[in-house]
Amino acid sequence: MLAFFRVVEVGKFIRIPFSNCVQIITIPVLINLKLLLRRPRFNLYHSIDGSRSAKILMPRKDFTVDGNVARCNWMITSLSKDGRIMEARRLFDEMRDPDVITWTSVISGFIKCGMIEEARRLFDRVDAKKNVVTWTAMVGEYIRSNKISEAEKLFHEMPNKNVVSWNTMIDGYAQNGGIDSAMYLFEKMPERNVVSWNTVVSMLARCGRIEEAQKLFDRMPERDVISWTAMIDGLSKNGRIDEARLLFDRMPERNVVSWNAMITGYSQNSRLDEALDLFEKMPERDLPSWNTMITGLIQNGDLRRARKLFNAMPKKNVITWTTMITGYVQECESEEALKIFSRMLSTNGANPNQGTFVSVLGACSNLAGLGEGQQIHQIVSKTVYQDSTFVVSALINMYSKCGELKTARKMFNDGMTSQRDLDLDLDLVSWNGIIAAYAHHGCGKEAIRLFNELRKSGFKPDDVTYVGLISACSHAGLVEEGLKYFDELVKDGSILVREDHYACLVDLCGRAGRLKEAVDFIERLETKPSARVWGALLAGCNVHANAKIGKLAAKKLLEVEPENAGTYMLLSNIYASTGKWNEASRVRLKMKDKGLKKQPGCSWIEVRNRVHAFVVGDKSHSQSKLIYSLIRDLHSKMRKVGYEPNNVFLSDEY
């Protein structure tokens, strides 16, 4: 734990910019072109050679013959740029004979402001003047709004289509998983450009149909740097990293994105040395290059080298800071994660985003750092992320892990109220967060009540919901309820049952002493049981002193994690609790021969802004005599009410 920062000191660093709804544009006819593809994996209108760019070139001047119409067009465009769309609409309504540029400008203005229904009303007017740009803009907006059926219908109604129209619809199918529909449309295209080919190649590569992607790539009449990069990315993601490198070496021209894709491929395939070697050879690096390399190192557990690169970076952005914070949280170095966050704010390095807050609140949860969590909550409340369901869920988790269940519930209730006021539904993430909070505190019945309320609200529980629910039943001793919900999960069919669910079920049976049922369940599993599953069984054997099943669980667990000292300790305790002292001694001796030592337990408490840490058997605290005196007094009172301590579970080393 660390002495953190005061909110008043860091508040001045939170300057989250608010984006205007209208993007800067040049002239009305260009508005539509920039709307077509907002979320492609690659910039489909980018080319290393401008002369070969697929973008349709439009005039930079309005060649309207009528000077008054031209002036009105310019004013409508300017008002739309400033977000004053209703003023632009009033000016449009006052025009006697608006031309196609005028219609396109005002329709595109509504689209840019997210007012698609108003744009569609104008678009459908009988007197509307439309061209291919207008039609394509509407199709593109429906795709952006995930209304693929409306986009498809409009596309088929288009009187005239150009290559951009076809590319827009194909990319829309690709974004929404309609791979076969995209391919059908691609084959029907009267003419194709390099963007058309790039779209389908990258789509096929992303969804694992790499052989088809390779065949199309080989057929391409013309390739640009995006074509090569898309194929390299696809091969890498499908585990064919050596083929990706051969392709990379064959590239006639490379840009920084190509290098980044190849480095990412090596990192994703756990070949860090080759990734670093390529990184060092890069002729030029941009910020994503550094972020790519740092992310790869962290994903492969090499936090030391990631930190070294992080410190060497000439410039950092929010992705850089968030990646490092997340890396430390994943490696259980939450205190260091908080230090990085504090440094991020104090150096004015970048403004935290949603991912930053979720990660740093996770660090607070791991440390039970209520004070730090509350300060971060205050920072969040001054940003646009205060209503983010992911951030709210992280806050619920943080308050729950810090023992503040009432505050966690208040966060959830406040979220429900604000979402209701905005006529929106509370996100499933928040429901999962509060159910997990009650599970953490052993409040099984309340978790079940919330689960039922979730369903009544029209939500369908997902895999995370069931992990929290079954865990809540386990901690509260609601065995039959837990078994019922697990059976419901399996029968559902639409939710993937994963190892977390298996571990929860084994834990449920183990805590209740139904160890034979747990073993039978594990033996029936079609997949190889994970360490978490065997660990849950071993913990149950420890509680109920079942040496026979405990020995089996420990053996299986050590096959998966041979260097886990905790497994030896639990098995030794199980033998000791059943009076098998020789076996317990042999386990301890084997543990010693392997050089394994269990880390002593540690806990801490914060009193008056000072953190007091305690390790098992430690007497270094300045008030240790008083503390141990109080503990002895507490033990004495516990014995008077009938509690008998089980000393066989205590380690000799402590």
Distance between the termini: 24 Å
Number of helices: 35
* Helix proportion: 55-70%
Percent of residues in beta strands? under 5%
The radius of gyration over CA amounts to 31 Å
* Largest sheet, strands/sense/barrel: 2 strands, antiparallel
> What is the tally of beta strands?
2
What spatial form do the alpha-carbon principal axes imply?
Answer: globular
On the 0-100 scale, what is the average pLDDT?
82
Spatial strand order of the main sheet: 1-2
3D architecture notes:
The chain has helices at 7-10, 28-35, 67-81, 85-94, 100-112, 116-123, 132-144, 148-157, 163-175, 179-188, 194-206, 210-219, 225-237, 241-250, 256-268, 272-281, 287-299, 303-312, 318-330, 334-346, 354-367, 370-380, 389-401, 405-421, 428-440, 444-456, 463-476, 479-492, 499-511, 515-524, 531-544, 547-560, 565-577, 581-593, 624-640, and strands at residues 602-607, 610-615. With 654 residues, it is an all-alpha fold. Strands 1-2 form a two-stranded antiparallel ribbon. A hairpin with a 2-residue loop joins strand 1 and strand 2 (610-615).
